[in-house]
Specification:
183 residues, Nucleotidyltransferase, domain 5, two-stranded parallel sheet, 14% strand, globular, Transposase, Tc1-like_DDE_dom, RNaseH_sf
């Protein structure tokens, strides 16, 4: 609920001030997949998870939430998935490893540790923070969720932005082939 700050214009000597009533300990977590396939438009699949503020419940995504996101993505995309993700501890749990091992349509590669510059989803978060979430004081958690959904939905309809997030990593979709010379 703490608003991210961004730059804005104002008259000289009149610094704009946004008053925030109080900080909330509630959290909103989002998991997202950027989906690329040569010859098709890029896609963004995401799921938000809202912390209800209860102490006895988990505040962020569990491995089962990621599992459900991957199953939904598989159904939506209708084909095998090659998943490249970071080394978040939830991605490496025993339950997630068992789930991955039991799915022939899912191939997983881990990014190197501390390499957010290779993750296209980080570009999505940057777009969201710099655009729809910047300079806004959210009054309620619902206001924050609504703004996040509006921002992500508009990114979904702009495959050029999703492509730009992949280009920003320096990675590409074209597979490299190695020629082997017969001896």
């Amino acid at each position: 609920m703490t608003p991210p700050t961004a730059r804005t214009w104002a008259r000289r000597g009149r610094t704009p001030v946004i008053r925030v009533r109080g900080r909330s300990r509630r959290r909103i977590s989002i998991a997202a997949l950027t989906c690329y396939k040569p010859g098709e438009r890029s896609r963004l699949i995401y799921r938000p998870r809202r912390d209800d503020g209860r102490r006895d419940r988990r505040k962020s995504f569990a491995w089962t939430d990621y599992r459900d996101l991957l199953i939904a993505a598989h159904q939506q995309l209708g084909g095998p998935i090659v998943l490249i993700w970071d080394n978040l501890n939830v991605h490496l749990t025993a339950g997630m490893r068992q789930f991955i091992a039991g799915r022939d349509w899912l191939t997983v590669y881990q990014l190197p540790s501390y390499a957010p510059d290779l993750n296209p989803v980080e570009g999505i978060w940057s777009l969201l923070r710099r655009g729809w979430l910047s300079n806004t004081a959210f009054t309620t958690p619902e206001h924050l969720i609504q703004t996040i959904r509006r921002g992500l939905r508009s990114i979904q309809y702009r495959p050029d932005l999703i492509d730009g997030c992949l280009a920003g990593t320096g990675l590409s979709l074209t597979p490299t082939t190695t020629r082997v010379q017969p001896q």
